[in-house]
Amino acid sequence: MKEFKKLLEQKDFSKDDILRLLNSEGEDKTLLLKRSREVADAQIGKKVYLRGLIEYSNICSKNCFYCGIRKGNRAQTRYVMEDEEVLDCARFAYEKSYGSIVIQTGERVDSAFTGKIEDLIRQIKELSHGELGITLSLGEQSDETYQKWFAAGAHRYLLRIETSNPDLYLRYHPDDGNHRFEERLAALERIRRAGFQQGTGVMIGLPGQTLEDLADDLLFIKNLDVDMVGMGPYIEHEDTPMFSDREQLMSRMERYQLALNMLAALRLMMPKINMAATTAMQAIHPDGREEAVLAGANIVMPNITPLKYRECYLLYDGKPCVDEEPARCHGCIINRIQSTGNQVGLGEWGDSRHFLAKQVCKD
Length: 363
Ligand code: SF4
Hints:
Elements lengths: L1 H7 L6 H8 L3 H19 L2 E11 L25 H13 L4 E6 L5 H17 L5 E5 L5 H10 L3 E3 L7 H7 L8 H14 L2 E4 L2 E2 L6 H14 L3 E2 L2 E2 L18 H18 L4 E2 L3 H6 L3 H7 L4 E2 L6 H4 L15 H13 L4 E2 L8 H10 L1
Parallel strand pairs: 1-2, 1-10, 1-11, 2-3, 3-4, 4-5, 5-7, 6-8, 7-9
Helix pairs in contact: 2-9, 3-10, 4-5, 5-6, 6-8, 9-10
The chain binds iron/sulfur cluster (SF4).
The site of iron/sulfur cluster has 10 residues, from loops.
């Protein structure tokens, strides 16, 4: 116990140290979660920031084996939101003082799509008098596309590596030249080069994934020096090829508990990054997002997509809040965050302190 307490005070963590954190349970786990929240309080404050999530379209050119909206899922009805609907969502977020929105879609690289996103970013900036921050999560794109979206006013970009183990990456994606691990790494580099606050993340508890892989994932995230992270438990979707591997999975609650340890360990390793309390946590446990905040997360993404599209954006089974009106969600999310003893950073961008600290060092 004394030794574990000493470990929690460290600044640098070896792979063995991380494995010890990921394996923690009982009293050790309680100490780990308490320490990670203390580190968050001291380094980034007792505030949680909101990002209104707009699931703009579920059309995707890719076929990741775990994803419910993969191109090959013929059971899925496809949609693209109307421009006015997107602007209404942004207006809602602005009026509710969310501070920021996230635009998320399946991956498309055609010019009609990239041009439309650029227009929407400009219009959202205009309607909010430049006040709404914009995060994008739109997959792998060219230098030119990232640059034009950044110039239009988006300033944060999330592209999850999903797993940092190239062999596992190959297992979870088709080997068709369109889903290359190296290309994902190159895209992450292009995101940084374009000027975005760079975000990545992984899935926790995938079939065939070991604790060693997860420790390597945390070291990968640390070495990449990212500004923000979105990671949560893997949840299987029945209309995907990986559903047939479900016998190999640990229980959902075990994946959830492991995700809490991952969040807490990463908070100790990277005290100033932004870290999301993902909806996948809430899909397993009704208080999943609050527990993630208590483990050190500081970002929550209320879904503000119109209800009629929600059922069509199911990346995994059992996604929560698919039938909750954004207006109802609003009060619920504020109460949930406050119940953790944190304030809600209304009207603030809540940019990554890790990113801001790097900018100061550059100047
Ligand atoms: S994970 Fe992303 S890129 Fe892969 S199929 Fe799903 S939406 Fe498309």
